């Protein structure tokens, strides 16, 4: 039995992995250094409907900074815009959600009619600045007695129908927003002509080419006015974080 026991112990010892002269007593376990991921820059965080700016594109970044600086100017009257947002957003947000439209489109009326009033030179009017023919195509009454383009709830429903149709054509929310500004036929022609379907890389007229940049700038100023140097009354600051928690009457 002693011989058998000695033989088994010898076999077990041989089966253990060799440490090449090192002892477990002094063996240290080291972990590889953790890779430090730098925080995203403010520019990298900017987006419209979760579609981000092309990172590393100096031309796009310069344009975004320029538009932000323009909106940062006191002439924007951000107090007035925040007051309008506090009034309009509780009505607009649930309708956008019901139609599956990204919430960022709530900034369209602020850009379209919040910065100006009345009828455009081309005849567009109302919160969403519909042309008469387009308004009628999407269910709004426009005649000598009534103009539903000036009804926030009804015009938002019409806008959602139009935006959803545009997204079905372009499969991009930024292109849908640009097409809302310039028209789907013109947008399709530009995409075909330039063989390019990234809004930020396209060459468009100055108004349409800056349209999504304006929406992003409006979003930034409304959501984080203090970052951009605006001092708002506390009553208005209380509204903009977050608008979605407000009750809809």
Note the total helix count.
12
Strand arrangement, largest sheet?
A: 1-2
Oligomeric status: single chain
CATH topology: Lysozyme
CATH class value = Mainly Alpha
The H/E string reads: HHEEHHHHHHHHHH
Counting helices, strands and paired strands, the structural category is: mainly alpha
- End-to-end Cα distance, whole Å, is 92 Å
Looking at the overall shape, the CATH architecture is: Orthogonal Bundle
Number of domains: 1
Helix content: 40-55%
Low-confidence stretches: 235-249
DSSP, total strands: 2
Alpha-carbon Rg, integer: 29 Å
Shape verdict: globular
What does the average pLDDT come to?
A: 81
- Biggest sheet record: 2 strands, antiparallel
Q: What's the topology here?
A:
Elements: H1 2-15, H2 42-45, E1 47-48, E2 51-52, H3 58-71, H4 78-98, H5 107-114, H6 132-137, H7 152-170, H8 173-182, H9 184-194, H10 206-209, H11 211-223, H12 234-237
Helix pairs in contact: 3-11, 4-7, 5-11, 7-8, 8-9
Provide the descriptors you would attach to this structure in a database record.
mainly alpha; 2% strand; two-stranded antiparallel ribbon; 249 residues; Lysozyme
Structure report:
The chain is mainly α. It is globular. The N and C termini lie far apart (92 Å). Strand 1 (47-48) and strand 2 form a beta hairpin. Residues 235-249 have low confidence and may be disordered. It has one domain (64-241): Lysozyme, CATH 1.10.530.10. The longest helix has 21 residues, at 78-98. The protein contains 12 helices and 2 strands, in the order ααββαααααααααα. Helix 3 crosses helix 11 (211-223), helix 4 packs across helix 7 (152-170) and helix 5 (107-114) crosses helix 11. Strands 1-2 form a two-stranded antiparallel sheet.
């Amino acid at each position: 039995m002693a011989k058998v026991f000695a033989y088994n112990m010898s076999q077990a010892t041989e089966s253990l992995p060799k440490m090449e002269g090192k002892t477990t007593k002094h063996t240290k376990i080291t972990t590889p250094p953790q890779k430090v991921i730098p925080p995203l820059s403010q520019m990298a965080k900017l987006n419209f409907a979760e579609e981000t700016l092309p990172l590393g594109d100096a031309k796009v970044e310069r344009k975004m900074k320029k538009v932000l600086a323009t909106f940062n100017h006191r002439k924007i009257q951000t107090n007035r815009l925040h007051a309008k947002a506090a009034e309009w957003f509780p009505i607009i947000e649930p309708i956008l959600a019901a139609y599956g439209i990204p919430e960022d489109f709530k900034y369209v009326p602020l850009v379209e009619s919040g910065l100006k009033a009345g009828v455009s030179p081309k005849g567009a009017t109302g919160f969403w600045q519909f042309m008469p023919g387009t308004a009628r195509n999407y269910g709004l009454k426009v005649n000598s007695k009534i103009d539903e383009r000036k009804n926030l709830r009804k015009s938002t429903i019409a806008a959602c129908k139009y935006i959803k149709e545009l997204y079905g054509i372009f499969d991009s929310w930024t292109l849908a927003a640009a097409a809302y500004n310039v028209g789907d036929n013109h947008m399709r022609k530009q995409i075909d002509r330039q063989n390019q379907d990234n809004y930020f890389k396209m060459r468009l007229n100055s108004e349409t080419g800056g349209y999504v940049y304006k929406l992003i700038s409006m979003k930034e100023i409304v959501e984080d006015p203090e970052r951009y140097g605006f001092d708002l009354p506390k009553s208005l600051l209380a509204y903009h974080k977050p608008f979605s928690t407000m009750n809809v009457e």
